[in-house]
Amino acid sequence: MANTKMKILRVLDILKETDEHHPITANEICHKLETYGIEAERKSVSRDINVLMEYFNNDSDYGYEIVLCEDNRKGYYMCSRLFEDWELKILIDAVWQARFLTAKKSESLANRLGSLASTESRKVLQNVTPVKSYIKTTKPKISEHIDMLLLAIRKGRKVEFQYQYTDTNMEKQLRFEGKVYLFNPYALKWRGDRYYLIGNYDKYDNLSFYRLDRIYNLAITDSRVKPVREIVGDNSANKIEAYVSKCMYNFGGENIHPVLRVKAEMVDEIIDYFGEDIQFKKQEDNYFDVRVSVNDGDGLYFWLLQYAEKVKVISPKSVRNELLKRVHAIIKNYDENESTN
């Protein structure tokens, strides 16, 4: 009986290697089964395939879409899969582009994703993914941090950790002399090249970001997490998502609605950063005014300085003044450097 159960599982594994362009006959399956030390006749293999197909044909949640070619002599192939090839390509690319994963971890995940494709599709996926072009981290702790934080969120427990920075000698140091943060974890977000923990530092009543690659000595505590609704109110998942979407470069702050005057060539950039739910109002000389929703933090001013030649703040006055203050600080910095040369 055990050998019979193993046989049908091996038949399924063999069929998973096929596709419409690379079917396999029952006799060929028999030969492949021999490599696993399993003897089988063509008729018994056909019966196994019918069993695998049965529940799918009965519109059940189980079973596999295995198809017999119109030319019966060509055999069978697996028609539907958990993921299409293009879906696997996207997932594999994401795994390799994730800088927070080590090369070894990315390779393991990519190989497991590739195993969900047919043999020939797997070869194509490998050939069209230039893995050596990606910069990878050398810190395996990040995957452990993700696992621990998911557990903490599921259990509703606070976490504690220290936070690192790199000094001018390229050595890691602990912020604030090794201060231990007691933190309420609510969400994990992958933004840009980094993974972030989003939650609440016990001392305050707002949300904040912490980069997982800078977290050190992470531990799950026995203390119950502060309910997220005390921080953001009801519909917490949507509120956190809205908060994150308005945090430019992952800096928090009060939500504001500045009006920006932009050149026509900036429309795509504005949409990339602020979404499509905005309206452009035509002004003179091919300029447009647009009202956006964003958090008033360092990230906003970094972005405004980046596009200072093409974007002008119309309102509020507080944002204009803060931006000009930073511009003057830049000019002063350059003037001081010039005087010392």
TrEMBL record:
Pfam families on file: WCX, WYL
Matches recorded under PROSITE patterns: WYL (PS52050)
Transmembrane domains' residue ranges: none
Domain WCX: 259-330
InterPro entries: CBASS_pafABC_assoc_protein (IPR051534), WCX_dom (IPR057727), WYL_dom (IPR026881)
Domain WYL, residue spans: 144-218
Protein name: Uncharacterized protein
Lineage of source species: Bacteria, Bacillati, Bacillota, Clostridia, Eubacteriales
